[in-house]
Amino acid sequence: TILEATACGLPVVAFDQNCVKTNTHVILGELGFFAEAYHPEPLAKQIIFAARTLEQDSSLPQRLMAHAKANFSWEKLYKDLINA
User: Fold this and answer.
1) Read out DSSP for 3-63?
2) pLDDT at 84 > cutoff 80
3) What count of other Cβ atoms lies within 10 Å of the Cβ of residue 41?
4) What pLDDT is attached to residue 26?
5) Terminal Cα-to-Cα distance of the chain (whole angstroms)
6) Torsion angle of alpha carbons 71, 77, 78, 82, nearest 10°?
7) What is the pLDDT of residues 22-77, one digit of tens each?
């Protein structure tokens, strides 16, 4: 779901890897919004921050979609496999 949201240009809010072990940082990199603790308050703050960023940065959806396509598309997977 993280990759699908990113490919649709939607900002993703997740918990930081220090509190939950996932590949979210690998998928999102600097384009993700990460709560520092596994609690409602830090998560809510990041949701608000993501919403404000989306309002202020009209290029964010395009950058998210480009990031997903460049790093996780079927075409990239194909090229990686034939060049392995």
Assistant:
1) HHHHHTT---EEE-TTTS--SHHHHHGGG-EEESSSSHHHHHHHHHHHHHHHHH-TTHHHH
2) no
3) 9
4) 80
5) 27
6) 100
7) 678 888 888 999 998 889 999 999 999 999 999 999 999 999 999 999 998 888 88
Residue identified by tokens 């600097």 is 30
pTM for the model: 0.79
Residues 36/18, Cβ–Cβ less than 8 Å? yes
Look up residue 36 and give its two tokens.
């520092």
Q: Are 43 and 13 in contact, with CB atoms under 8 Å apart?
A: yes
